[in-house]
Amino acid sequence: MNSLIIKNLQKTYGNGVKAIDDVSIEITNGMFGLLGPNGAGKTSLMRTIVGLQSADSGQIFFNDINVLEKPDFIKKQLGFLPQDFGVYPKVSAYDLLNHLAILKGVAIYGERKDQILSLLEKVNLSAHRKKEVHTFSGGMRQRFGVAQALLGNPKIIIVDEPTAGLDPEERNRFNRLLSEIGEDRIVILSTHLVEDVRNLCSKMAIMNQGKVLLQGNPEDLITSLEGKIWKKQIQKEELAHYKSEYSVISSQFTAGKLNIYLFSDNSPKGFQNVNPSLEDVYFSTLNTNSLAL
Ligand SMILES: Nc1ncnc2c1ncn2[C@@H]1O[C@H](COP(=O)(O)OP(=O)(O)OP(=O)(O)O)[C@@H](O)[C@H]1O
Questions:
Q1: pTM, two decimal places
Q2: What phi and psi values does residue 5 have, to the nearest 5 degrees?
Q3: Which residues of 58-96 are buried (b: 16+ CB within 10 A; e: fewer)?
Q4: Is 91 within 8 Å of 41 (Cβ atoms)?
Q5: Signal peptide position in this chain (predicted)?
Q6: How far is the centre of ligand 1, averaged over its atoms, from the C-alpha of 191 (Å)?
Q7: Distance between CA 4 and CA 163 in Å, rounded?
């Protein structure tokens, strides 16, 4: 079992932005979802974990080794799937993996070849191994990204916004692949898609303004909101009024009608109680901060 323990981590950039504000998280094998809006501090936290930037204070232990003191320890066991690879060179999928495997230290030719062929098989790209990666569709590129992240059999994989731009079928296929690789290692999935966390992760944290506002098991967090989420259909002109009177956590149009959802321990007049969802957990955490967990 691998373990990543983050204790009281702090990082303030030169411009005064506090991107990581006293963050403490413990993660073991499986998929961990790091959920938060743009600018919450997710990328800063991941860059610090993988040793790409320093922290001002706090500690990070990976398998009991302090990685802020020894960043090479985690770098050797890490796979990273960034949001965007940028431009690919005009080389085939196989040749690019071969090149990356050499950089990752898979030195023996036969071992490298076996590993690349089996990874291409795993991500369902064997038939396309001779094609240049820049000709791949978005979904194929993301699956290629998983193959490169898995080179060298890392114990921790960090994935940044992986399903952005994928169609629903590609997204499903990609998510199945991610949950498979999380079985025997740590996979940290940073995203603002609540649904992906709901479908894939057994543990999660919600971040905003550098702080971890809530963490736990998605099912438990949903259960904790039972009986506290209320819905009402209103006219869109009434939204400002309801926002001033109640703890409105979200509003959405459904079939042209505006529904508002609010968080309340008591039954507000004219509202209907609804089963909570992970979206309600997310929005009530971000918009009210009133969950007592
Ligand atoms: N190098 C930097 N120098 C100064 N401020 C930065 C730097 N990198 C990020 N920030 C700021 O720190 C805050 C957290 O940014 P970060 O990129 O970590 O958030 P994020 O949750 O990953 O957002 P996104 O989903 O948009 O990538 C933001 O206010 C951002 O503008």
A1: 0.85
A2: -120, 120
A3: bebbbbeeebbeebeebeebbbbbeeeeeeeeeeebbbb
A4: no
A5: none
A6: 14
A7: 24
3-state secondary structure of 169: helix
Amino acid identity, residue 116?
Answer: I
Report residues whose beta carbon is within 6 angstroms of any ligand 1 atom: 13, 15, 17, 19, 36, 38-44
Q: How many residues does the chain have?
A: 293
Cα separation, 50 vs 114, in Å, equals 27
Q: Return averaged pLDDT per consecutive 10 residues of the chain, 293 residues in all.
A: 96 95 95 92 90 92 91 85 72 92 88 93 91 87 87 90 75 82 89 88 94 95 93 89 87 86 89 93 80 40
Distance of CA 19 to the CA centre of its chain: 17
Amino acid at the residue 236: K
Return the residue whose CA atom lies nearest to atom 8 of ligand 1. 44
Q: Give, using CA atoms, the residue closest to atom 24 of ligand 1.
A: 38
Residue type, 125: L
ipTM confidence score: 0.94
Rounded to the nearest 10°, the torsion over CA 165, 168, 174, 178 is 100
* Helices 138-150 and 168-181: angle between axes, nearest 10 degrees: 10
